[in-house]
């Protein structure tokens, strides 16, 4: 564009000059060797311009003839270089596609057309060709030679790192990654690998320093860098919690400034405050996190902040959490558990059922089973909630790369990835039908069996028993009338398991007891005493109509069913 503009300016200038001379005619006289030459001004100007162009053309022609050998050599050299680069490009594409035959052919052609000291990509093509042909030792030698050259140092270290990972030599891979990260922290693969290795080794300070270098080099964005630094600070705070609570508190607070939703950092900060007997600040930290995202570990730390609190005090603290985040399953479950500890079964049941309707999961059903066991002891209702818990979705846990952990970890134990653990529901723990949604909760609540009426309550509704005279002891014994609305008891021959206290005598199964009078009864009683066995098959002597051996005058009128 600039040349075109200059050409137009020169052409217009010449045209304007000739036009100016044409408007001002004149003669030019030249005397040379006694000869007079006269011509017009326009002819003289035209002759001068033509002479200038002729001289320029003659100079170009002489220069072209003089430099023609060099020009020919340069032409053929450029042609050869172009063919070499074409072979190099084709070879790299073939190596990437896994075509070993074509890659080897193009490697030989490129080496013949190009000089390896002037084109380092030839070494890369040779190393890639050796890799796809399975000659890993030769490939490592090529990568090692490239690592010695400053121009190809980075690609050589990466090749050595990949080969070390393939062979399982983690120490060698770590050394290659750290060498690359020290000289070039802007390399994502080197920085990420070095960061993982330092985190696995617990070198949190070195990991944070490398993370700052990555952030300055714009390898990762600011948001991701802040999140990872918060995770590293939390990991260091967890290690310092026992020996240096103040330092752990500072690290945890710094982590919360970078990531406000990092629950493990908040828990560590609260525990460090509690170790200093500063319950108010610990509660403030937990309450701030609870407003954003309720978590069961936060609830457990908050409710049991003071070890000397009573169950009623813990219930008040759980209610405060519910006030901060109402209509939340975690808040309701925390209140239900605290109410169960205070024996407030009605409140515990209502809160647990409300949490169940909002989020039917395993912990809600298990809590209802605990409430049922503490309040009624009805085994049928307890088994109902336990069966529902088996079919319910699992509770959220710390999950990373398919691994479920009971506590939060900064790195994944499988891949070493930083900040891999997430609080979510694990999958694949149990095989079987999983019931989800509020419909499952309503079905479970509606199918809850009724409370089984106790035998003593039924006996209280029956008329008083009539006394009779025992023919053996001639004492008055009160007989229980048949239970109202209950079928008569039937002796089943199927043996039932009997719970035996430690160090107790083995129980002998005997047939159902039969009332025997006279000498037969005395002989039976005598034989039972001689054997030393319990004549009631392990049952305490409290059946109706049977006298207590410790106090024969007072018959035991209680009835106990097994």
End-to-end distance: 108 Å
Whole-number average pLDDT?
Answer: 78
Structural class: mainly alpha
Q: Reading side by side through the largest sheet, how are the strands ordered?
A: 4-3-5
Range of helix content: 55-70%
Shape: elongated
- Number of β-strand runs: 9
Q: Can you count the helices?
A: 23
Strand content: 5-15%
Low-confidence stretches: 429-434, 455-562
Radius of gyration: 48 Å
Main sheet characteristics = 3 strands, antiparallel
Structure characterization notes:
This protein is mostly helical and 562 residues long. The protein has helices at residues 2-22, 41-66, 68-97, 100-113, 121-132, 136-148, 153-167, 170-183, 188-200, 204-216, 222-240, 245-258, 263-275, 279-292, 296-303, 311-324, 329-341, 345-358, 362-375, 379-391, 438-446, 455-460, 518-531; strands spanning 27-31, 36-40, 397-400, 403-405, 422-424, 467-469, 476-478, 546-547, 555-556. The strands form four sheets. The chain has a three-stranded antiparallel β-sheet with strand order 4-3-5, with no helix packed on it. Helix 6 (136-148) packs antiparallel against helix 7. It is elongated, with a radius of gyration of 48 Å.
